[in-house]
Design goal:
This protein is α/β, with parallel strands linked by helices and 242 residues long. It has one domain. Helices cover 42% and strands 12% of the residues. The chain contains 9 helices and 10 strands. The protein has helices at 39-42, 45-54, 83-89, 108-115, 118-131, 136-144, 158-178, 191-207, 224-235; strands spanning 10-11, 27-28, 59-62, 67-69, 95-98, 101-102, 147-148, 154-157, 211-214, 216-218. The strands form 4 sheets. The chain has a 4-stranded mixed β-sheet, sandwiched between helices. A two-stranded parallel ribbon has the order 1-2. The longest helix has 21 residues, at 158-178. The chain is globular. The relative contact order is 0.17.
Length: 242
């Protein structure tokens, strides 16, 4: 973990890990109001929900144990954005995001359908059309596009964070009530985390916030060759399990 006091480790899904002892500096996401038990389907969003409900700092965000926003090149963990850099960026921007991923040969919607289940997006669109109709054009624009910010990572002022969470979680809970995932693989059961990656872009499209996209620093091997094979195989409907 970064040594900077700015970064507070939160164990997502703590309610599913009873009996395990966390390092003393870590926090579980299962205290007071929480959705920690949904971690197998909501992934890191259970941590995001806990931050929304319990953290009152003026600037908040979510990064992952293995990937962080990178600032000026200094080498290794020294690349990770520090508080001074974050505050300087947010003087001119409303939100810090990962650099967009580009799908050169397909759309956001077709990529999702090849990687997961098309019905996930269909259900999300149905719920948005019924309860968040003003976002429907933004949803269609993002899904027909060829780039988006992924990873459910962002840093912003707490007011922006709260506004996004207040929109996102009721929407995901409504989709959860509509979607049958009983036959999904363990990976595809993380559907609400995958959907949130796309829905953040929908919300941003509608809000028209000032964005600052930053590169990511990965602390683990990304296996790009393996990921490339998975991408090609999925295009032809072939399951890649290794």
């Amino acid at each position: 973990m970064p040594g900077d006091r700015l970064y507070q480790p939160v164990m997502a899904g703590s309610a599913l890990r009873k009996g395990e002892t966390l390092p003393t500096s870590w926090i579980g996401d299962d205290t007071d109001e929480n959705i920690s038990l949904k971690n197998k389907t909501f992934s890191e969003l259970t941590g995001q929900y806990w931050i929304w409900k319990h953290v009152q700092d003026d600037i908040v965000g979510i990064v992952h144990y293995r990937r962080y926003f990178a600032g000026k090149p200094r080498g290794g963990k020294e690349d990770i954005l520090n508080e001074q850099e974050i505050r300087a960026i947010l003087e001119k921007a409303d939100i810090i995001l990962p650099k967009k991923r580009h799908y050169w040969i397909e759309t956001v919607a077709s990529q999702y359908s090849h990687a997961h289940h098309a019905v996930d997006l269909q259900t999300a669109r149905k719920v948005i059309s019924e309860s968040q109709h003003e976002y429907l054009l933004d949803f269609d624009k993002v899904m027909s596009g060829r780039s988006l910010c992924l990873n459910n990572m962002f840093i912003s002022k707490k007011t922006v964070f709260d506004a996004y969470c207040a929109w996102l979680f009721p929407l995901l809970f409504a989709i959860e009530n509509e979607l049958d995932i009983s036959s999904y693989s363990p990976n595809d059961q993380r559907v609400f985390g995958f959907l949130a990656e796309r829905l953040l872009n929908v919300w941003l499209c509608h809000q028209k916030l000032r964005r600052k996209e930053m590169p990511l620093l990965y602390l683990e091997d990304q296996h790009w060759i393996r990921k490339g094979f998975r991408f090609v195989f999925r295009k032809f409907g072939i399951k890649w399990n290794s």
